[in-house]
């Protein structure tokens, strides 16, 4: 299987990177993460969410169907998550867990102790000690290919878990620990060359410094990484942290604070634009570990979303878009030092004149909604870009959805 390096989503994510430092203050959570409840969660463990870049589907692992962990998928349509279904083409009779979707949503990497994984030698009681290896599958025309072991020198007789990929697909990040001893977790990375991941080596400090760091999630658009760890400044057990990274040099890990973390465990932050997802075993859940979601905004120069939907060929906002706009409104109220420019974009169908008018009307509808939530209209500028700034210069399913978007420029007041 070859790794797809360039795609329409990769083009989307390669926009101008903001230059700022993310911390618990600039990481503005509209509300504490909300439990996704019975629409997603079960009475068992629901763990390690990974969300497609456009937020249209989520994959996670759960033991709801038995003793072993399986991978499940749920689709989001009109703001509602579908009943999770097992990924039968990928799951094995054993454990399949900690999934991660590539930047274009076409590659799924996960950990499994299925038959064929490299095993440790038998113990003194002649018992087999099964180990976890990393596998991947490719999504083609909506179908997932048969999983294969990650090619190269990544898999060993130890546990390899919680994989992730850089945006361009050339760097694999993952955790490794000895059988039965998660306290000695190592964070590693490997480079993709000639069809294989080679030269695995430990990550530099602040990783591999004695703490059980897991679930390293690249956030190149934020100039850093999210990860989970149990460190001296953790609020409870595992908390979610952010660490800046520029030219291979890491900053000091920052705990994201009590608007994300709790006195319980929080792990596996995944996101689609400003929609964030985690798993936690905090009080009040449906089962053991549950999946939670929240809207998170940062004071970037620019961000965009596909969470705002309109009636076809009209500027009427769907009710399913209200939660996003309400969260944005709350963010703007908390940051009165910024103005906002709303830019509407359409797909490439129709004339330039018509699309310019439609996109401006839709931007105006968003402005009116925010003003109706108590924001000063003078803080909000609008512009209709029509089809003049496509993310993907193509027509058709997949491309049209990418180009239909609402863009926000956050402008500091002088």
Explain the overall architecture:
Strands 1, 2, 22, 23 and 24 form a five-stranded antiparallel β-sheet that branches. This protein has two domains: 21-297, 6 Propeller (Neuraminidase); 302-412, 60s Ribosomal Protein L30, Chain: A, CATH 3.30.1330. 11% of the residues lie in helices and 37% in strands. The protein contains four helices and 28 strands. The protein has helices at residues 8-13, 322-334, 352-371, 399-403, and strands at residues 28-29, 34-35, 46-51, 57-62, 70-77, 80-81, 85-86, 96-101, 107-112, 133-140, 143-144, 148-149, 159-165, 171-177, 186-193, 196-202, 214-219, 224-229, 239-246, 249-250, 254-255, 266-272, 275-280, 290-297, 302-305, 338-345, 380-386, 405-412. The relative contact order is 0.14. It is mostly beta strands. Residues 2-21 have low confidence and may be disordered.
